[in-house]
Every structure is written in C-alpha cells, then in structure tokens.
C-alpha cells in the first residue's frame, strides 16, 4: 500500500537528482539562517550550496552532534523566527536537557505525509481504527502518528499510555484494528490479553505499529503470537522531527527511509569516515526539507546498515536495518562490545530458554577487583522446573552458555521471581552500569 | 498415600521467606513441614500444609512461582538403623531419592520424614509391603 506512490517509487536517478537539489538548497538555507551553521560551514569553506557538486560532496560538511544541539538549547539553532513556528515538541531528556523539536506549518505537513507513508507501508488503510497508546504530550511519537494516521484517513483513538485495563477495554469495545505503542508496552498488553478473561477472538487487532525504542525480531514474534497481529517497526527521533524518518513495508526486510526528506549516510563513529553501502556504522542524517529546525549530517548514535537493493514492495527508497545498537548504549565489558539487543535476542529467541522465562530482563554491570562483570537477571515463569534444583541450574547454565557463544563473554545469570523486574511504558532502561559507583 | 508438597521459588533477599509464610498465615493455612534449600542467589521453599490448593491459590495471587509435587511422609520408629532400613528398601527397588527432610510430630517414639523419589507411587508400594508406615494426606493434615 502506498500513500505517495510517485515519490515512494521514484527512479533512483531522479531521486538522487532531487536529493542533490534539495541538499544544495538546505546548505544555503542553513548558512544564511542559522548562525551555528554559518560558522561551521564557513570554517569548512562551504559558503554556498553551489560548492556541493555531487551527493558524495556531503562528506565535506561538518557533522552535527547531540552536544551541538544541547549547547544551543532551546532555540539557538532555529532557522525561522518564532512567529513562523506553530508547534514545539521535546524529547524525554533521558540523557540530560530535553531535545526540542520545532515545526513550521510546512514541517507539520511534511511530517504527517512521511508518517502516513510508513503507516500505509505497514498495511494500514482508511478502513482501520487505530489506538495510539504512546503518551501524548511533548513526545513526538503520539502526535506524529496521530496526524499521519488522520492524513491517511484512518480512525484515530488518542488513548495515550497507562491504565492498561482500559486500554484493553477500548481495543475490544471500539473494534480497534491497529495499535501504536512501544514494543515493551505492546508486550505488556499482550501478556495481559494472554492471561486475561477475554479470549483473543474478542480483539480485532491486525496491525501493530511499534516504535520509539528498539524491537528485536524475537520481541516482535512474541507480540505477534500473543496478540495474533502483524507488527511493523518504524524509526525517528526528536532531532529529526520524530517518527516518519523510516519504516517497514509489508515485506519487513528493512526500514524504508523517506529519502526525499532525509538523506542518510553511514560513518565510522571513531574516524567519521563514510562507510561503503552495506557496511555497518553510525547513521548520520541530513534533513532536506525541514524549515524550523534543519540539521546537517546529524549523528544519530544509532548503529545500522543501509541497503540500496530494490525492494519487492516497489519502493526505491533505501532501507536501513533495524538499529543494532547505540554508540552510547554499547557496553564495553572486559574489552568486549556488548549490545543489550544481542542479549535480548538470546533470551527471547532461544528454544528451551524463552518458554521458561519472561520477556523482561535487566543487565547489571559491576566492577570488582578491577574486573568487569555482567549480571543478567531474568524472570522464571516455568513452574515445572521447581521440583528439582538441577533443572533450575540447567536453565541458568543454558542461558549462560548461549550468551557465552553469542557475546564471547562470561555472565552471571540470575533467576528472579515473576513480575519483579521493572516494566517500562516508555523507553526501556534495562541497563544498570554500576562500574563508576562501586569499588 | 501421596502427600502434595508445594515448591516455591524464592530469590535470596532479606524478608522474602517472611513474606511468603505471611501469605500462608493470611490464607489460614497451617504449615506441617518445611524445608529450604538454597544456592547463592535463589532458593526453593518446600512446604507441606494442611490445605495445599488454597495455599497455591494464595501464593499465585501474590505473584509467586509455585508447583505441586507428590511426596511420601514416612513414619520411622525411634530406634537405631530404622531410617537406613527404609532407604535400603528404596535402593533395592531401584528407586532414586531426590531429597529428604524430617519434621517433628507429637507422637512419642516416632519420627517422620518427607521423601521425594523419582517414582513416588512405586516407592509407596514397596515401603508398605515391607511394613513401613506411610501417612495418608488426611492423617498428616490433621496432625
């Protein structure tokens, strides 16, 4: 399903010509309207868009970091006076001051187009009734999906997050066919459905449009199984205006970038050099259309790959892999790079393990005698193992051994009582790094 | 012959055992025998109560992982070699003992042990044939 088929299936040569034209215009626009970029671009000798001859000349533009944005908090990087701004959003500010998203009317229009595209790609049509269980407010997720879905013609229920019993009641009573939520909240709701008094047939749900945090293939499988739905992933961030940057189509083989609005690159996070297509590295994005808060070569800190192969769905826009990790989430334990998503894959996707433990987990990193160690806490749910110690120990050992083979690292596996690990309705904070707090 | 024993998963953290036994007290369940074995970070509480079904419901309502297992309660007279005789009978019948714990009774000259074997029904049969006293669930619950 397409929302703007002509753009979404544009020939690559035409798309790249459009990107180059928009990139040049964006460079001029930033140079002339944002003092920060005037200085940065000037220092790099890029005093006008004409200096950009080909798309790969983008590599001469200096990167923008989260710290740059933070240093200009809240409105120091705006390209328009406040009278042209019609909406302000902000991130949750989990890692410091919130990041603000600032929109002109054109920004809002483009944003909802991009979101409508990803929802259509996920299979949503004007026939669908979609419940948005993201928290409404400053967060870009809820209103972003809200206006995008309305633009697509779907029926929107602005449920917001929390009060899970009521969420399930609305899903049933309103005949909801689509759910917008974070993957962890979707798992939480789906567990309630599984354990609840109403059968799955009381729910008409078909689509789960999950985002705002990582969703591994295993988490997805679990949600799909519990809920009997089809789940698609999408990607975005406040710095880039929220959701709508990329999203999966029905073939679910990567997230199609809205490439006419966002120009993606992959760089080496250490050397900042551009990587060849298909190589993993940090995703860097340039906005091609944003007016209120444009960014050039923004370092997302997300590790992924770009795939330029044509997709079966007919879209020509590049696909990014699911985010493999964050450059700042990456734990370095005894010199080994560990991404929480790798651990999650083992816990949720290993036969003989995932049916015995719950989907929630916590990672605790400690330093003892100058040695790092990683504890992985999981919830025991299989009651049949309780009769014999050796079965519990065998489960611990199975998890330990599988983690060892995937991570190449010794871990301490701890079994916890069910429902004792923290549940998250927003972004999951599953890592507790105590290395700088303990001796 | 078979007694239903509750196995409860407990994390090793302060107050947890107290909380679990408080749940049982609140549910008006009396404990007949109890045993806790632990590793460094978790333990399994094994407990025989007078109303096992009610106990399981109460514990599950409090979010605990519980299972029911068949065990035997065997009466052993207070004389030398009486316990080893019981174990020998089981060994000679090819029955493996998983674990054993003792509990106090009000009968003078008698000790009772809970025995979990890999073949609980067969164990009850051979012990009875050899004249070993096995408590019925009713007798134990009313002790």
From TrEMBL, chain A:
<dbReference type="GO" id="GO:0016874">
    <property type="term" value="F:ligase activity"/>
</dbReference>
<dbReference type="InterPro" id="IPR028154">
    <property type="entry name" value="AMP-dep_Lig_C"/>
</dbReference>
<protein>
    <recommendedName>
        <fullName>Phenylacetate-coenzyme A ligase</fullName>
        <ecNumber>6.2.1.30</ecNumber>
    </recommendedName>
</protein>
<feature type="domain" description="AMP-dependent ligase C-terminal">
    <location>
        <begin position="335"/>
        <end position="435"/>
    </location>
</feature>
<comment type="pathway">
    <text>Aromatic compound metabolism; phenylacetate degradation.</text>
</comment>
<keyword id="KW-0547">Nucleotide-binding</keyword>
<dbReference type="Pfam" id="PF14535">
    <property type="entry name" value="AMP-binding_C_2"/>
</dbReference>
<dbReference type="Pfam" id="PF00501">
    <property type="entry name" value="AMP-binding"/>
</dbReference>
<keyword id="KW-0436">Ligase</keyword>
<feature type="domain" description="AMP-dependent synthetase/ligase">
    <location>
        <begin position="81"/>
        <end position="286"/>
    </location>
</feature>
<comment type="function">
    <text>Catalyzes the activation of phenylacetic acid (PA) to phenylacetyl-CoA (PA-CoA).</text>
</comment>
<dbReference type="InterPro" id="IPR051414">
    <property type="entry name" value="Adenylate-forming_Reductase"/>
</dbReference>
<dbReference type="InterPro" id="IPR042099">
    <property type="entry name" value="ANL_N_sf"/>
</dbReference>
<comment type="similarity">
    <text>Belongs to the phenylacetyl-CoA ligase family.</text>
</comment>
<dbReference type="InterPro" id="IPR045851">
    <property type="entry name" value="AMP-bd_C_sf"/>
</dbReference>
<keyword id="KW-0597">Phosphoprotein</keyword>
<dbReference type="InterPro" id="IPR011880">
    <property type="entry name" value="PA_CoA_ligase"/>
</dbReference>
<dbReference type="InterPro" id="IPR000873">
    <property type="entry name" value="AMP-dep_synth/lig_dom"/>
</dbReference>
<keyword id="KW-0596">Phosphopantetheine</keyword>
From TrEMBL, chain B:
<dbReference type="Pfam" id="PF19571">
    <property type="entry name" value="ACT_8"/>
</dbReference>
<dbReference type="InterPro" id="IPR045739">
    <property type="entry name" value="ACT_dom_pair"/>
</dbReference>
<dbReference type="InterPro" id="IPR002912">
    <property type="entry name" value="ACT_dom"/>
</dbReference>
<feature type="domain" description="ACT">
    <location>
        <begin position="5"/>
        <end position="79"/>
    </location>
</feature>
<dbReference type="InterPro" id="IPR045865">
    <property type="entry name" value="ACT-like_dom_sf"/>
</dbReference>
<protein>
    <submittedName>
        <fullName>ACT domain-containing protein</fullName>
    </submittedName>
</protein>
